[in-house]
Write a structure and sequence with these properties.
Largest sheet: 7 strands, mixed
Helix content: 25-40%
Oligomer: single chain
Structural class: alpha/beta
Distance between the termini: 35 Å
CATH topology: Alkaline Phosphatase, subunit A
Strand content: 5-15%
Amino acid sequence: MSPHRYFSRTVILGVSAFALLPLILFAESTSPKHPNVLFLIVDDMNDYGFYKTYPVVKTPYLDSFLKSALTFRKAYCASPVCQPSRTAVFSGLYPHTTGSYKNGARPWKNSSLLTKTESIPELFKRNGYITFGRGKLFGDNVPSERYETMWDNRPIKGGYGPFLEEKDQLTDKWFVFRAWKGPDTDFPDVKNSNAAIEFLKQDHNKPFFLALGLYRPHVPYTAPKRFFDLYEGVDFPMPPGYRDNDLEDVPPLGRELAAQWGERLKYVGKHNLPRWQKFIQAYFANTTFADWSIGRVIEALDRSKYADNTIVVFWSDHGYYCGEKDHWEKGTLWERSALSPLAMRVPGMVHAGETSHQQVSLVDLYPTLVDLCKLQEPNHRLEGESLRSFIENPERKQKRLILTSYGEEYASVRSERYRYIRYPDGTEELYDHEIDPHEFENLSGKPECVKIKESLAQGIPQKWTKSLGGHNY
């Protein structure tokens, strides 16, 4: 498909969404007791395209969707890497409760708590829903017996491929910047999206929970060629949050997190601007590819008989950034690593197209679905809070501290104005987002900030469950 045809389809979708907007804005709250749920997850998507903080990025399908949804501008993950973030969402429990801090820990098998915890799809299934899952969902090899209690369909996963040959790899098979010239169906994301679309075309005699997890824009940075072509010849400026020597006031443990990606860091950044340009082109091409994949599924929903009775939740498992503080920012405790795209469309909502600017957590998704779908409570206490009040009133204010952690006693706390970070050795960072949104100046050593740190420290857990292990990438 040519770029012209791609955007022609996008215009059609946008017009369709615009035509439905009055129905969404002024609909009475007449939805049945148990609405359907379309749960859409992308991997490693940052705020560039979603919140339009970097205007070069093309995400026309998501732009259209947000006109009919409520956007949460300050949504934060519980952990800044895939598996523990998704574990927190699907369990409704923070990492310091489960011990799931890192990738590779297999928490649904190795945690004595999570083996007894009812996940989101298990709760929906117990409440009489059809549960259909495809793609990257938990980000973990969930034991096969748990799949039986979670999902009514097979297969579930798909994989990160296609992978390029070794001669095209920069450091390993994951780190490549290259267009794919084969058919779209070489990508599991396309196959899984096709399966979701087919599901939406079918007749279902019960409400459904449909979860689709894309593997993009996560590495490897391959996408169909037409998405690379959209950015051909673009001169990508360095992000606004870039400054030389910005790690000088960061404690050693913070620098360790920033450096954990090793060899890949040598291929991007100020010292390799041509490669950085290629990197950004590849990441944005994959972002637009993910946008197209998500858009196809939302379009299928809006054309189906389920359109008026389906909650749509779109989220990314964590933030992602390269440029700020001269490093790869996934897997750190800074703002851009914790900030996660999140938007919801709910039948009967009267604030479609609006934005909530209050800080919330992705852990809030589980209790929100229990609330909106009027489900029986799960067999464990959820640690998040329902977002229903923000859906009903996006201007609602709250004083709440949001926690992101990445290991025992690696804590990052966000208030409306500040981000406070404390490491296991007691070293600290403090940033005032009112005057320093890119976190350039660490204020933790200033005497006048002692009271601020004490207040923010109240959001740090007193007890940390022992880590299940894993690795720092």
